[in-house]
Amino acid sequence: MHLPPLSRLLVVLVLVTGGAAVAQRRQLQSFEAEVVTEEQREADRSKSKYNINAYGKHIPVKDEPFPWMALGLAGLVFVVVSPFAYRAYKSTTKEMADANVFGVSSAREGAEDEQA
Asked: For the chain, what percent of residues have pLDDT higher than 70?
């Protein structure tokens, strides 16, 4: 659907004037009329909502030690399991080589060459 350029201009003008009308309706608060004394300013500053700087003063920082025992246990398990894993790997590799699952055996190639 292709709109003529004048209708596009009309849509843009309606949006701009509507935005300006809405912006004029809402007035900002005037802070110039209020006179705040120095004591009131200090009181407001002292009771601030989010006192980020004082948050961590009373909370002790707890340093967690490195889990050496867990690391040692993982190393021990690795050392105990490694020979069994190596033996399983070797037996599986041997079975796969004997079955020749992924390729053509050299013995089969020789037999095919002799038949041809």
From this structure: 61
3-state SS string for the chain: CCCCHHHHHHHHHHHHHHHHHHHHHCCCCCCCCCCCCHHHHHHHHHCCCCCCCCHHHCCCCCCCCCCHHHHHHHHHHHHHHHHHHHHHHHHHHHHHHHHCCCCCCHHHHHHHHHHC
CA angle 30, 36, 37 (to 5 degrees): 170
The sign one gets for the Cα dihedral 18, 22, 25, 30 is negative
Alpha-carbon span 49 to 44, nearest angstrom: 9
At 42 the pLDDT is: 83
Q: What is the pLDDT of residues 27-69, one digit of tens each?
A: 666 666 567 788 888 887 777 666 566 666 777 778 889 999 9
CB 104 within 8 A of CB 98: no
